[in-house]
Amino acid sequence: MIVKAEFGVRSKEELVVQPFSSKVSRTALIQASESYRKAAESNEPLKPFRVTALRTERGVLYSRGQGFVKLFPDVQYTFSATSIQEDFTEELLSKPAFSFEIYGKKLLCELLKLEVVNHLDVSAQESRLYKVNFLTPTLLQFPRPRLKRKKNRYILFPYPPVMFSSLAQHWNRYFSPPVSRATGTRALYFFREVDYSLSPVTVRYDEGFVRGFVGWVLYSLEARKGSKLRADVRRLLAYANYVGVGKSRSVGFGEVIVKETS
């Protein structure tokens, strides 16, 4: 089961927050969900939660470079949270509205929408073309070689093998049947780029900076119709809408919207 919730956040005062605004989202969710609090404190990889950055009708709130983000009074900001844990639903319904504090200011948060889906029903609609919109800096990297230096090295283009590997690892951690055929270099041949518009972007996070990319890519799915390979790809594409893509997706990086297109 996959649970996706959308929240609204309002501040009564003007408030300056960190450059990547998911700090506010995560602070709010800790007040609403004990299971999320425990997961957030854990060092385990591939967490069963994903929390997005704040957004308005104009887009996601994050600052490029060294700037900060400012929240204005009585403006509704929204964010979403996805969980693989069943008790998440009960936690949210028991506390649909609450207040929380951050940076010495009190904010109000309320549950706006709750979606519960069976993971076996997760699949993108049949199409030849799929457009993947990367809303927040996406951090993808190839498998690390065995080197003493372990600094992350993120790529600035969403190559299908890397993207599908990221999604399959998360899916296989929590669900079955496992997805295996959609990964590897074969993805370069059955999921091909048709057009794209991407930009590299550097964002300050905690005490450092991360560099990823935002934008969109139009892909053509050329796996045989009715094949397990094609079904696996459609499943992973739909799953990306719930959990995001790449490293640090649990805190809002790699947020994507995948849509079928003609």
Automatic annotation (TrEMBL):
<feature type="domain" description="CRISPR-associated protein Cas6 C-terminal">
    <location>
        <begin position="132"/>
        <end position="256"/>
    </location>
</feature>
<feature type="domain" description="Cas6 N-terminal">
    <location>
        <begin position="3"/>
        <end position="117"/>
    </location>
</feature>
<dbReference type="InterPro" id="IPR019267">
    <property type="entry name" value="CRISPR-assoc_Cas6_C"/>
</dbReference>
<dbReference type="GO" id="GO:0004519">
    <property type="term" value="F:endonuclease activity"/>
</dbReference>
<dbReference type="GO" id="GO:0016788">
    <property type="term" value="F:hydrolase activity, acting on ester bonds"/>
</dbReference>
<protein>
    <submittedName>
        <fullName>CRISPR-associated endoribonuclease Cas6</fullName>
    </submittedName>
</protein>
<dbReference type="Pfam" id="PF17952">
    <property type="entry name" value="Cas6_N"/>
</dbReference>
<dbReference type="Pfam" id="PF10040">
    <property type="entry name" value="CRISPR_Cas6"/>
</dbReference>
<keyword id="KW-0051">Antiviral defense</keyword>
<dbReference type="InterPro" id="IPR041165">
    <property type="entry name" value="Cas6_N_arch"/>
</dbReference>
<keyword id="KW-0378">Hydrolase</keyword>
<keyword id="KW-0255">Endonuclease</keyword>
<dbReference type="GO" id="GO:0051607">
    <property type="term" value="P:defense response to virus"/>
</dbReference>
<dbReference type="InterPro" id="IPR010156">
    <property type="entry name" value="CRISPR-assoc_prot_Cas6"/>
</dbReference>
<keyword id="KW-0540">Nuclease</keyword>
